[in-house]
Amino acid sequence: MNPIMDIPSKFPRWIEPAEVDLVKAEALAKELNISLPLAQLLFRRGICTFDEAKKFFRPSLSDLHDPFLMKDMDRAVERLMRALDNNERIMIYGDYDVDGTTSVALVYSFLSTFYSNLLYYIPDRYKEGYGVSLQGMHFAKEKEVDLIISLDCGIKSFAAINLCNELGMDFIVCDHHKPDESSLPPAYAVLDAKRSDCNYPYKELSGCGVGFKLLTALCQKTNRPFDTLLPFMDLVVISIAADIVPITGENRVLAYHGLKQLNASSRVGIRALIKVAGFKKDLNISNVVFGLAPRINAAGRIDHAFGALELLLEQDETLVTDRANQVDDLNSSRKDFDQRITEEALAMIEAEGQANARTTVLFKEDWHKGVIGIVASRCIEKYYRPTIILTESHGLVTGSARSVRNFDLHEAISQCEDLLEQFGGHMYAAGLTLKKENLPAFKKKFELVVAASIEENMLLASLEIDEEIPLSRITDKFFQIVEQMAPFGPGNMQPTFVVRNVKAKAVRLLKEQHLKFEVCCPNTGQRIAAIGFQMAEFYKAVDEGKSFDLCFQIQENEYLGKKTLQLLVKDIKFVEDL
């Protein structure tokens, strides 16, 4: 056995690019004046005509859908306008994650530009749990609230909304999670594009996106220019990035223009957050996901989301630095919890003999509730399968679930509904609560449900290749066109390319963990710099001159003011010498 060939790839499964109609791709390439590989790249993303390409590369706010296409929007706006006209007290209620926090900041800060009888509320993750809480409804009644608008939650909050009605308050739900198939909560209006009776053309808005559509509809009905909403789009793009919703359709338009607003934001809290995150250039979606979102999230995970919300709403520049530093400190604490619990969880998988199961379901009563979703994702990085991490809260077992590529986690959990107190979420992420005595039965049933429906290839970490290209194709012009495909994210991931049978020169290790080298094409002698983070295990084989297939993304590297193209290595597969 050749020891070089035994070096495992980061991704056991490389998904080769789908075939496209070459004749049509060539025609599109000619019409757009781009290379054939770029045209094929567009085809694989469903962009097959000049007009589709124009909309894709130049997202326009005019492409946003009429908000009144959403079921109940007319009722929601009518009730909100009545509250504004009669000076009723309005409470903006949101979830404690990034989507919920930005949603509250969006609706509260926009309404407060012309209306003052407002207050906001975010539940305590540990005392009240997910969704609209009974405690929150009693708080609203004490504050003499007339109308409550929930954001990023509420679609399954039957008990709380029933209580709200009994207490004489009206309720508008703005949510984007899956409703119950049989019924909706008894709210005055329910805005959720995933309602079975809702014909809204785009189903993947974030919670903040639904709030944005409500405000758009309000502007239409009250003759306010749409442009008055533009300064608030920085909050929308943060929600889109953090909630990992597809960056397609309307979300692409909102993200594209939201990034422009974010990078020009006059919101002092966001500027302070960007500073503590260490960003000095314009932000992209990845910067938001890995830089801003974890800090906003940390407030609700470790303490209370009010800290992050107040930072987003703060207008006093003398106060935002301290608030941003507090959020940054909470994020550091979150990392410590995350690392410790992940180590414990991975050890438990081995100790409990779950290494060969189709699922991971782990419970420990003292795990920190605020980081178990992150821990579930970390476990999937090691053992690639649907994972649920559980802890104890108020006498019940509660947890977060994460899925693998193409497996509907929400559907699998729904088949175990008889053992649960409540659950909700998406295809790839969900939350659930159950009684402790039901945990053994749930673990067994969840494993059986997943084992019966998951395909073997779903249990292999995969890397999707967009295009196979020669090194000679990687030019400044090629890169510039690829960059115009941004913003990148689910549904429009940054293109990943492969070159075959290449070798490396000038190989070295950076900080004993990062692989740096030049890719060399044996036929042409062309070279281009490449870097593979956390890929030290490939160093010896690459340095020995073995041929390999290289999977990569293209990026721009700037050093001493000079910009050059560089390949960001995603994976390496060695090939036998010919």
Structure commentary:
This protein is an alpha/beta fold and 578 residues long. Among the domains are: 67-223, inorganic pyrophosphatase (n-terminal core); 352-462, Diaminopimelate Epimerase, Chain A, domain 1 (Roll); 466-574, Beta Barrel (OB fold (Dihydrolipoamide Acetyltransferase, E2P)). Helix content is 39%, strand content 19%. The chain has helices at residues 22-32, 36-43, 50-57, 73-85, 98-111, 134-142, 158-166, 207-221, 233-242, 249-263, 268-277, 285-302, 306-313, 317-351, 372-382, 409-414, 439-453, 476-483, 539-543; strands at 13-15, 90-94, 118-121, 147-151, 170-174, 189-191, 360-363, 387-393, 396-402, 422-425, 429-434, 462-464, 467-468, 497-510, 514-520, 527-532, 548-559, 562-574. The chain has a five-stranded parallel sheet, sandwiched between helices. A hairpin with a 3-residue loop joins strand 10 and strand 11 (429-434). The radius of gyration is 25 Å and the shape is globular. Residues 1-5 have low confidence and may be disordered.
- The span between the termini is 17 Å
| pLDDT averaged residue by residue | 93
Strand order of the largest sheet: 3-2-4-5-6
Helix content: 25-40%
CATH architecture of the domain at 67-223: Alpha-Beta Complex
Low-confidence stretches: 1-5
- Structural class by sheet pairing and helices: alpha/beta
For the report, how would you describe the main beta sheet? Answer: 5 strands, parallel
